[in-house]
Design a protein that fits this description.
Structural class: alpha+beta
Distance between the termini: 38 Å
Strand order of the largest sheet: 2-1-3-4
Largest sheet: 4 strands, antiparallel
Radius of gyration: 18 Å
Strand content: 15-25%
Oligomer: single chain
Helix content: 25-40%
Order of helices and strands: HEEHEEHHH
Shape: globular
Mean pLDDT: 84
C-alpha cells in the first residue's frame, strides 16, 4: 500500500499555466531550435527546427534512439524541452493547457488488454474519458473497425491478431478519443 500511495502522491512535472491560452487545434506544428535531453546535457534532440502545416503528412525516420518517439512525446507535452520553442498553431505549448486528448498518437509499441475482446479494447477509454453511452461507443467503434478491415475480428482477443492488425486496433483507439 505504501508503494501505491507513493506513486499516487507524485506531483506531475508538466502542469497547465495559471491562465492558459484557449486551444482550438487547426494543425500547424512548429519546432524552433528545440533541444531536449532526458538526462542532464545528454541531448537526444539538438537544435531541431521544422514546420508541419495543417493537412500535411510528416514521417520521422531514423535509427533507434534518434528521437522519433521523443518528438511525438514533446508534441503531446509529455515532457518539456530545455531550449527552443514548440508551437501549435502559433501558440507556445507551455502557455496552453496540458490536455493530451487533443492529439491522437499511435506509437510503434502499444498494449492491448489480452483478456478483453478487440471491441472492448477499443471502447474502454472513451467510455471513461468522454462519458459516452456504451451503445454510442460500440456503434462508432464498429464503424471504425469496419474501415480498417477488422469488424469481423471485433469479438476476437488480441492474441489472435497479427502485429499489423493490433496496430490498426491502436489506430481505432486513438480515433475513438476524437483528437482535434
Amino acid at each position: 500500500a505504501e508503494k501505491i500511495f507513493s506513486v499516487l502522491d507524485v506531483k506531475p512535472e508538466i502542469v497547465s499555466p495559471a491562465d492558459p491560452a484557449p486551444v482550438n487545434i487547426l494543425g500547424e506544428i512548429e519546432f524552433r531550435h528545440v533541444w531536449f535531453a532526458y538526462e542532464e546535457e545528454n541531448y537526444i534532440l539538438k537544435d531541431v527546427s521544422f514546420v508541419i502545416h495543417p493537412g500535411e503528412k510528416a514521417a520521422f525516420v531514423g535509427a533507434t534512439g534518434a528521437g522519433k518517439s521523443t518528438i511525438l512525446n514533446l508534441i503531446g507535452r509529455y515532457f518539456d524541452i530545455q531550449k527552443g520553442q514548440i508551437l501549435i498553431d502559433g501558440k507556445d505549448v507551455t502557455h496552453t493547457p496540458v490536455e493530451k486528448r487533443n492529439i491522437g498518437m499511435v506509437f510503434q509499441s502499444y498494449e492491448l488488454f489480452p483478456h478483453k475482446t478487440i471491441l472492448e479494447n477499443v471502447i474502454l477509454a472513451p467510455l471513461k474519458v468522454q462519458k459516452r453511452t456504451k451503445e454510442d461507443a460500440v456503434s462508432e467503434a464498429k464503424q471504425l473497425l469496419e474501415k480498417v478491415g477488422l469488424l469481423d475480428k471485433c469479438d476476437s482477443f488480441p492474441r489472435q491478431l497479427s502485429g499489423g492488425q493490433k496496430q490498426r486496433v491502436a489506430i481505432v483507439r486513438a480515433l475513438m478519443m476524437h483528437p482535434e
